[in-house]
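Give me the fold.
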Amino acid sequence: MAPSHEKRPPWQNQFEIPSTDDLRTDLPLPSVELFDDIREAVLKHEDIVEDKRWYGECWFWTLGFFLKDEATAEDEPILLLIPTPEDLQVAMPFDRECLEALNTRRMKRAIRDGLDLASDPYSTNWAIWPINARNMLDDLYSIIRHRINWLRGT
């Protein structure tokens, strides 16, 4: 009997670049709506482009957002939308100066916790948030705007 090869979900298949719709396929309905809302909010910025990026067994295929002039394979994204069906996430890399310029006093605890991951004592510059409720999005959008403006130098 020949071994059976179970087909991997599109967001986990390293050897085939998924479409944006493929990345949404395995998400539960509430997460699909959040995925679409985040994507739409980021793409409202005229100089932002999206591209699918493979991040290995950690995040698999992601939807990355980049400044238009800096969307090469080596560039760090403004943010990643990570379509894991059990845990839709947003991840953003931060340099220390950009992170320190954020006013976090009025942000929800869950937002501050995600930002803490990009700070000492952690050895990464990635802030990560599970996106499981719409009430996180306003604070997250303000962080996204801050990061875009920081990268633009404004």
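Strands lie at 48-54, 61-67, 79-82, 89-93, 126-130.
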